[in-house]
Amino acid sequence: MTIKFHGFSSRGGWWVIAQFLLFALIVVALTGNRTPGAALRLAGWALIVAAVLLAGTGAWTIRAKITPLPAPVDGAVLMDRGPFALVRHPIYGGVILGFLGLSLRGGNVAAGVLSLLLIPFFYAKTNHEEALLVARFPEYAGYSERVRHRFLPWIL
């Protein structure tokens, strides 16, 4: 018996599988946490709070139209308000910050290195995603010129 996922591959499902495999590797690495100094723990918590704010406001802004797949859902509209006025992919930015924060808070170098791999991974995924967005929303090209950063305001 073959299980078919309608549009799974064409909507970018393999990107999601790779993403969750990378998340799983980071979580496994986080099990080896150490006890870092107070400054690293505090920095980690600060990144976690920033991650929740960035990803949370991004998810709240698009609410019912959220999808882990790169292809926009039917009925999606180009979002350029809230955190999307600062960065094009705030949820991915929040994920990066969150895993980096957990790595710092736990004093875990391996998890930190794996978390940094999220940056090139999400760049590749968003290259694919943005090509789909330009095809769906011709005005996306202008939006990406106005909003230069993909993940973190003024940084990345």
Helix and strand arrangement:
Layout: H1 13-30, H2 38-62, H3 90-105, H4 109-116, H5 118-136, H6 140-146
Helix pairs in contact: 1-4, 2-3, 3-4
Label this structure with key terms.
single chain, 156 residues, mainly alpha, Four Helix Bundle (Hemerythrin (Met), subunit A), 60% helix, 0% strand, globular
Describe this structure in a few short sentences:
With 156 residues, the chain is mainly α. 60% of the residues lie in helices and 0% in strands. α1 runs antiparallel to α4 and α2 packs antiparallel against α3 (90-105).
What sort of overall outline do the alpha carbons produce when their principal axes are compared? globular
**Major sheet size, sense and barrel closure:** none
Helix proportion: 55-70%
The CATH architecture classification is Up-down Bundle
What is the class in the CATH system? Answer: Mainly Alpha
Number of strands: 0
Helix- and strand-based class?
mainly alpha
Radius of gyration: 17 Å
Percent range for β-strand residues: under 5%
Task: Describe the protein in words.
The chain is mainly α and 156 residues long. The protein has a single domain (35-146), classed as Up-down Bundle (Four Helix Bundle (Hemerythrin (Met), subunit A)). 60% of the residues lie in helices and 0% in strands. The chain is built from six helices and no strands. The protein has helices at 13-30, 38-62, 90-105, 109-116, 118-136, 140-146. Helix 1 packs antiparallel against helix 4, helix 2 packs antiparallel against helix 3 and helix 3 (90-105) packs antiparallel against helix 4 (109-116). The longest helix has 25 residues, at 38-62. The protein is globular. The protein starts with 12 loop residues before the first helix and ends in a 10-residue tail after the last helix.
